[in-house]
Specification:
33% of the residues lie in helices and 23% in strands. The chain has 386 residues and is of the alpha/beta class. Strand 15 and strand 16 form a beta hairpin.
Length: 386
C-alpha cells in the first residue's frame, strides 16, 4: 500500500502579515496532482489542518475544495485534528464525509477504531489519534498522570488491543500529533508543554508498522517507522534551512516500510541577514537575497536613520527588522546589577535613553533629566521632613 504522509497545513496562516493563501492553494494543487500521478492508496494528514480554532472563511473554502478533489480521485483520506485545530469544528459532518472516503478522526474516544483500507495483501488498519490535551482526556483514558506520555500510552494501548483482535498479519498505521523525544522543534510551533513535560518517547508507538506524525514543522526521521512530514510551507524564519516535503510511504506485504521524500512548492526563499547597516546595503554577497523574504538584524551600536526604508530598496520583500547592538561579550555577560554598580541615577537614565533610541541624550535633554531628578529628590526630602 502506498500513501502520502503530510501534516501541519495551517490553512489561514500568514507569514509576517503576508497572506499565504495562494501558496497553500499551490501546495494543495501539488498534493492532489501527486496523489494522482503516484497512484497512492491513501492520504494521511497528521493534524493542524487549520492555523486556529476558528479559521477564516477563505481557509475553510480551500479545505473544502481540497477534500472534494481528493474524493473525486477516489483516494481515501485519513485526517486528525492537531493542537491548533478545534476538534469539534473540524469533526462536524465526519460521518457523512466518511461515506465519501474522507475520514476525520477528532474524537479521542475513537482512538481504537481504525479505518480499514484493503489491498492485495489484506487490510491495513489506520488509527487516528487526534491531539490529546492531557488535562482534558486523562479521565477518558484512565491515565495515572496528566502528561503527554501517559495519555498517548493509554491511547496506543487501545490501538494495540484492537489490533490484537484482528486477523494475523494485519498491518497497522497510526496518525498522531505530538512531540517525540529526539526530534528538533522550531519557532513556529505552539508549545504543548503539560506539567513541564511535553516530549514522549518513540517507544510509545511500538506495535504498529508506521507512525505518521505531525506537530513539528521540520521533516524528520525518528526511526524508519516513526516520521514527521513537517509543514509543507515555512511559517517562521527559523525554518530558513528546512526542505519542505511530504513522505511517499510504501507498506509492504509483511509490513516493511520504504519512504521517499517528495518536495513541495516553495513560494519564496527565506533569508536571515545579520550585520552592520552599511554592510547589508552594500555587500555584493547579499545580491542573491533580493528576491527572498528577509529578516534583518542590525548590529550597529547606534540605530540608523529610517533603516527599514533603506533596506527595502535593496530587499523589496524584507519583512522583519531587529536591533542587537554588538557591544562585546563582556557587556552581554555582565549582569544588570554589575552594570549599574557605581553609576548615578542620572547616568542610569542616560544609558536607558541610549538603549532605547540608539544614542544618548544631548545637552538640553541631560539638563531636563537633571531637573527631574532634582525635583524628585526635593519632594522626597519634604516627605521625610513631614
Amino acid at each position: 500500500m502506498r500513501f502520502l504522509h503530510t501534516s501541519d497545513w495551517h490553512l489561514g496562516r500568514s507569514f509576517h502579515r503576508v497572506s499565504l493563501l495562494g501558496a497553500q492553494r499551490a501546495f494543495l494543487d501539488h498534493l492532489v496532482a501527486t496523489a494522482r500521478s503516484e497512484r497512492v492508496d491513501a492520504v494521511l494528514v497528521a493534524g493542524d489542518v487549520y492555523d486556529r480554532a476558528v479559521p477564516p472563511l477563505s481557509a475553510v473554502d480551500l479545505f473544502d475544495e481540497a477534500l472534494n478533489r481528493l474524493a473525486d480521485l477516489g483516494v481515501p483520506t485519513v485526517m486528525i485534528s492537531g493542537n491548533h485545530d478545534s476538534a469539534r469544528r473540524l469533526g462536524v459532518g465526519a460521518g457523512l464525509m466518511g461515506r465519501a472516503g474522507i475520514h476525520l478522526r477528532t474524537d479521542p474516544a475513537g482512538c481504537g477504531r481504525p479505518v480499514l483500507l484493503p489491498d492485495e495483501h489484506g487490510e491495513v488498519a489506520v488509527y487516528g489519534l487526534p491531539y490529546l490535551e492531557p488535562a482534558l482526556v486523562r479521565q477518558e483514558f484512565g491515565a495515572e498522570q496528566a502528561d503527554h506520555t501517559a495519555v498517548l500510552t493509554a491511547a496506543m494501548d487501545r490501538v494495540r488491543a484492537d489490533l490484537a483482535g484482528r486477523p494475523a498479519g494485519t498491518r497497522a498505521v497510526v496518525l498522531a500529533h505530538a512531540f517525540v523525544t529526539g526530534a528538533a522543534p522550531c519557532d513556529s510551533e505552539r508549545d504543548i508543554t503539560a506539567g513541564g513535560v511535553q516530549a514522549v518517547p518513540a517507544e510509545v508507538f511500538d506495535g504498529v508498522h508506521y507512525a505518521a506524525l505531525g506537530h513539528l514543522h521540520g521533516c524528520q526521521t525518528v526511526s524508519d517507522r516513526v516520521r514527521y512530514s513537517g509543514s509543507p510551507l515555512a511559517y517562521s524564519f527559523s525554518e530558513e534551512h528546512h526542505r519542505k516535503s511530504m513522505w511517499l510511504v510504501t507498506l509492504g506485504a509483511d509490513g516493511e516500510v520504504t519512504a521517499d521524500r517528495l518536495d513541495t512548492p516553495v513560494p519564496r526563499r527565506l533569508a536571515r541577514l545579520r550585520g552592520r547597516f552599511d554592510d547589508l546595503l552594500g555587500n555584493p554577497a547579499h545580491d542573491r537575497h533580493t528576491d527572498a523574504w528577509v529578516e534583518a538584524t542590525l548590529t550597529d551600536p547606534y540605530r540608523p536613520h529610517e533603516p527599514m526604508a533603506a533596506l527595502a530598496k535593496r530587499f523589496p520583500h524584507i519583512l522583519s527588522l531587529a536591533f542587537e547592538p554588538d557591544t562585546g561579550d563582556e557587556d552581554r555577560a555582565a549582569s544588570y546589577a554589575q552594570r549599574l554598580r557605581g553609576r548615578t541615577d542620572g547616568q542610569i537614565a542616560e544609558d536607558f535613553v541610549a538603549h532605547v533610541r540608539g544614542q544618548g541624550p544631548d545637552h538640553d535633554e541631560r539638563a531636563v533629566l537633571s531637573e527631574a531628578f532634582d525635583a524628585v529628590r526635593a519632594d522626597a526630602a519634604r516627605t521625610e521632613g513631614d
